[in-house]
UniProtKB/TrEMBL annotation:
Name of the gene this protein is made from: purC
Organism, as annotated: Streptomyces mangrovisoli
EC nos: 6.3.2.6
Protein name (record): Phosphoribosylaminoimidazole-succinocarboxamide synthase
A GO term for molecular function: phosphoribosylaminoimidazolesuccinocarboxamide synthase activity
Annotated Gene Ontology cellular component terms: cytoplasm
Pathway(s) per entry: Purine metabolism; IMP biosynthesis via de novo pathway; 5-amino-1-(5-phospho-D-ribosyl)imidazole-4-carboxamide from 5-amino-1-(5-phospho-D-ribosyl)imidazole-4-carboxylate: step 1/2
Superkingdom: Bacteria
Keywords annotated in UniProt: ATP-binding, Ligase, Nucleotide-binding, Purine biosynthesis
Recorded family membership: Belongs to the SAICAR synthetase family.
Recorded catalytic activity of this chain's protein: 5-amino-1-(5-phospho-D-ribosyl)imidazole-4-carboxylate + L-aspartate + ATP = (2S)-2-[5-amino-1-(5-phospho-beta-D-ribosyl)imidazole-4-carboxamido]succinate + ADP + phosphate + 2 H(+)
Domain SAICAR synthetase/ADE2 N-terminal, residue spans: 19-269
Length: 299
């Protein structure tokens, strides 16, 4: 069992219909039929949405996504229509709200990996494959792969694991043409982003994208290339054969599984609130990732 430690009550705004509460985002629809996406400061780990928020997290995710969308627009269109606050929305929504096209979403997490770690490493250690793709012998945690690979996953409900699947399974689910289009777009976007990040001293180890269709056009949706959806490593500390330092929720994971929290992730008990020092260290990592990538100061 997992999910929300405490599921929040969505804020009601005149003229908006609340559609969905996700791990991080609240989804609404406006009277024009567009989606209104609001990124909260919620933090998830080990399939739980935690009771403690990370200040500014939702704004950092939103502003970093917008920065990346600008740099990827010639490769693939995105779903953003506007960043204006809907009338009557609370002031706290400023900087964390996107008005987006309503798309026919493809039910596949489009994951690109350039380095071996996480669930890819676990599969490789068992079978020398990732999502059915054969990889060379001798790779270790953090190894750079011979080339970026497309390793899709099925989308899971809140509290469930996304499940890695083969390319053939994606083709069976969504059709061969769409599967080929997803793979091509995923690897093109990953390769562009990886080069940009590398120029700023960051290794983009892997990332996941979501796509939808507007008519026959494939459109990049949700958020892109943030510490929530990507593994960013400081390039000057990259050293294969160990877990890499990371710009993400690693502080949170480490504290939850360490002795101080007193939490057993194998139990069905929800995780405890995070202490202030873990909240501050995690926020600092998100801010640092934003500043290193964009070259601007976080305000």
């Amino acid at each position: 069992m997992s999910g929300f430690v405490e599921k929040p009550e969505p804020i009601q705004v005149p003229g908006l219909v609340h559609l969905h509460t996700g791990k991080v985002r609240e989804l609404y629809q406006n009277e024009a039929g567009d989606l209104v996406m609001v990124a909260s400061d919620r933090m998830s780990a080990y399939d739980w949405v935690l009771p403690t928020e990370i200040p500014d997290k939702g704004r950092i995710l939103t502003q970093l996504s917008l920065w990346w969308f600008d740099r990827l627009a010639d490769l693939v269109p995105n779903h953003v229509l506007s960043t204006e606050l809907p009338e009557g929305a609370p002031a706290d929504w400023a900087g964390r709200t996107l008005i987006c096209k309503s798309l026919r979403m493809v039910p596949v997490e489009c994951v690109a990996r350039g380095y071996l770690t996480g669930s890819g490493l676990a599969e490789y250690q068992e079978s020398r494959t990732v999502c059915g793709l054969a990889l060379p012998e001798g790779l270790v945690d953090g190894s750079e792969l011979p080339g970026p690979i497309f390793t899709p996953a099925t989308k899971a409900e809140v509290g469930e694991h996304d499940e890695n699947v083969s390319y053939e399974e994606v083709a069976r689910q969504v059709g061969a043409e769409t599967a080929a289009h997803l793979r091509q777009a995923t690897l093109a976007v990953y390769s562009r982003a990886r080069n940009i990040a590398h120029g700023r001293g960051i290794v983009l180890a892997d990332t996941k994208f979501e796509f939808g269709f507007e008519g026959d056009t494939l459109v990049l949706a949700d958020e892109v290339l943030t510490p929530d959806s990507s593994r960013f490593w400081p390039a000057d500390q990259w050293q294969p054969g160990r877990a890499q330092p990371s710009y993400d929720k690693q502080f949170v994971r480490d504290w939850l599984t360490g002795p101080e929290s007193g939490w057993d992730r194998r139990s069905e008990q929800p995780p405890p609130p995070l202490p202030e020092h873990v909240v501050e260290a995690t926020r600092a990592k998100y801010v640092e990732a934003y500043e290193r990538l964009t070259g601007g100061a976080w305000h």
